[in-house]
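Working notes for the structural subgroup meeting. M.R. asked for a predicted model of this chain before we commit to crystallization trials. I am recording the input and output together here so anyone reviewing the notebook later can reproduce the run.

Input as submitted:
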Amino acid sequence: MTLTVENLKESDVEAALNLFHLIIDELHAKSLDVERLHFKDIYPVEEVKKRLNDKDCVYLVGKEDDMVVGFVFAWVSEGVGNLHWMGLAPGYRKKGYGDTLLEKTINIFTEKGCHEAKLFTYPSEKVAYHLFQKHGFKETAFIDRRFFGVSIILMVRKITPIPEEHRAKKIVLAGEAGQGIKFMAHALADILAKLGKEVSLNLVYDATVRGGNIRAEIVYSDEPIEVPFFEEADIGLQLSKSPDPTVRARHVLIESSACNAECKKCELRCPASDRVPFEKLATEQFNSPIFVNMIALGRLLSKIGINIETVNFASEFPPQFLDENVKAIRYGYTYQD
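Returned structure, recorded in token form:
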């Protein structure tokens, strides 16, 4: 018998997810039910079916005699192939099928122009670790259980030299005291670091103790950061109703009330779709202006191409505000004008 690898089709989604659930139960056999459900809930049937139409989605199944015996859930983001989950049914292991699934995934990453592939594995999974090593993945970081609730290893395989546009990205966040710029900046920097990026964060305050402006400058890269400062960002976020004129960015997301709904033809480069009524949305959708920063964070994650299904928000926010914050982030991520 041989393994046939093909793109996941709607008709095979439930079979693939049943196998995924089995793998989660194996890997987290000692965890609480609620912890296992956290992983399973990331892949609801109908949502997975929708993702199949996304060009960045790499969902594969391995079949023997037309029966699903293996799967791969992966995603392409910013020139990086992210292998989220891969598994084989018991009884179909140690037959070289893992090699076949992994080789096919790497080939697809290459065809999609990825310069590297990334994955996380568990220290206890020695067989998986050696499989990934065999296919050119190298351990680049060990992440302690304090961050994700379980220890994990980040492994990376270089596919091609990293293009210049992927080496360092610069973000500037600007707003007024009380808008949560510092909190949002730390959350964004932490998310990027946990996704394997090199990250630097600088906070700049006005001399005013209360009510002044605050600016956060973030640089992130797949390579070590040589200079953590910049004159102009790749993307900027302006939440203040009176934009900070010192903020310079090639592309800007801005609180629309700062423009009075009309473009002032200022130096900021922000198309109409990126003039967003953050404060109005927070009040109308979440009954409180305090969610401005979370809606903005979601919009920013979408703009820089971070797939939020890879983010464990439970490690970023206090548990008493987790559900509301995540809802606001998801709203901002999918927001359409």
